[in-house]
Amino acid sequence: MTTSQLFNFSSYKYSDSLTVVGISFCTAIVCEAISWLLIYRTNSYKSLRSSIDKAAKKLETMKTETPNSSSSSVAKVKISNKKSKTKKIDRVETSLKESSRDLSLFKFKSGAVVALVLFVVFGLLNSLFEGKVVAKLPFKPFGIVMKMSHRGLHGDDVTDCSMPFLYFLCSISIRTNLQKFLGFAPPRGASSGLFPMPDPKTN
Amino acid sequence: MKEGKSVKFNLQQQNHQNGHLSPFKLAKLLDPDASWDKDQLGDVLHWIRQAVALVCGLLWGAIPVVGGVWFIAFLLISTGIIYGYYAMILKVDEEDFGGHGALLQEGLFASISLFLLSWILVYSLGHF
Predict the structure, then answer these.
(1) CA of B31 vs chain A CAs: smallest distance (Å)
(2) Which stretches are transmembrane (chain A) (predicted)?
(3) Total-model pTM
(4) How would residue B112 be classed by pLDDT, with cut points 50, 70 and 90?
(5) Segments forming the whole domain that contains residue B58
């Protein structure tokens, strides 16, 4: 394949996939710009984020600190020290949860605008690519993945990929990494991740 | 020597607190004696996963390989690389960073999406 053939996108059978990716990328940039305008540059967000980061670090330090066992004779003092430490940890945890909740609420209100943009873009893409096969899957999907990847398509070939599935993959991968790159990713203290693991120290 | 290390650590901490990841020297990424902040290590693991996802997706799509088993292969490879990096190269104590689960799940979902996206795109555009 020559270079000119390589960059002649219209010659590809599934060139629509590039259009979907391109629109997703531009949408992600627009959404982050809107988020920055309405959320990230505000003082409320900055102070909430700062307090979450500080509380999370403080909590981590308090949980990993081991008590000084220089004297084992004063058992009552050790027990009361442990109780007051537990109370302090509870206070910091409560403060962290409240700040996280406030941050989520704050982002939710401004996120409605972003949601509207995403809705409009999805509607546009749907009108452009409804019923069209935009890509070919290199695997046979099943269950909910197949329902999404074969949505609106005719025929029995389950490896045909429709726009919603490709758009979903683009949204997750592009937006998450863009947020991470720009420093807009949510603070680790506020979220427990996709698969939250129990803290072994509290068990 | 110790003073130099603590000064370097404070400077990097300051840069990180400004909200942006400080420019890592390549040496720190391979130095088992380096001090790691939870956020810094998490970010490094995230980007390593994304890079592995992109490379695997491009490779799987270019060859091409087909079948769900190659998705499992990607998961095993990327998890193995992440585990090998933090446990054997950096030699960090995972208990200080929330356990194996917390470290292994950094950037997992995004990397799966990126892998699938690159695999599907290269396969569709390169072989039809």
Answers:
(1) 24
(2) 20-40, 111-129
(3) 0.77
(4) very high
(5) 25-126
